[in-house]
Amino acid sequence: MMNAATAAGGASEPAPAEDGNSLIDLSTILDKSACYARNENAGFPWGNLFIGDSRLGMRSDADEQLIIHLSFQEFVRVKSIKFNEYNNGADPELNPVKVHIHINRNNLGFEDIEDVDPAQTITLTAADLKESSNPIELYFVKFQRVKSLTFYIDENEGGDITAIGGLRIMGKTVATTNMKDFKKQG
Description:
By secondary structure, the protein is mostly beta strands. Helix content is 4%, strand content 33%. The protein has helices spanning 4-7, 126-129; strands spanning 24-25, 36-38, 58-59, 66-84, 96-103, 120-123, 136-137, 146-156, 163-164, 166-173.
């Protein structure tokens, strides 16, 4: 993309970074190579959360506990999250109930996640998981400079496994300077 300085033959400076002005679905800027899940059923992986079909969704494998780590391509401000029920509520005992949310923590596993204080813990009800319900507002002040989110589903409604139909994360991008935009001088 050429700006006026480049078109005139002069050296150009990168445009100043700007914060995102409107809320977006942050799943569009996930760094998928850095995302992972622990105790996920291979037939129902974390990537299914963003497809938009609750029949596919994500399931845990061995028990109800589940860790979902989502990494973003850039820093974001997270305003709200929305978990959707699996398979339109056909199996309510599989619904997640207690979810701990960690910010900017990499490689958390089951052996150490309970020793780390979460940024926020939410308790989901069946009504919260309905497609038509409002997203859950997060403690916005704690979610201002997020590079990754780790969700630890600690409890469900009593089923042997946990199943989630979908996940939406709403927020804004954060203005940062991309050092790759600067050219070496001299």
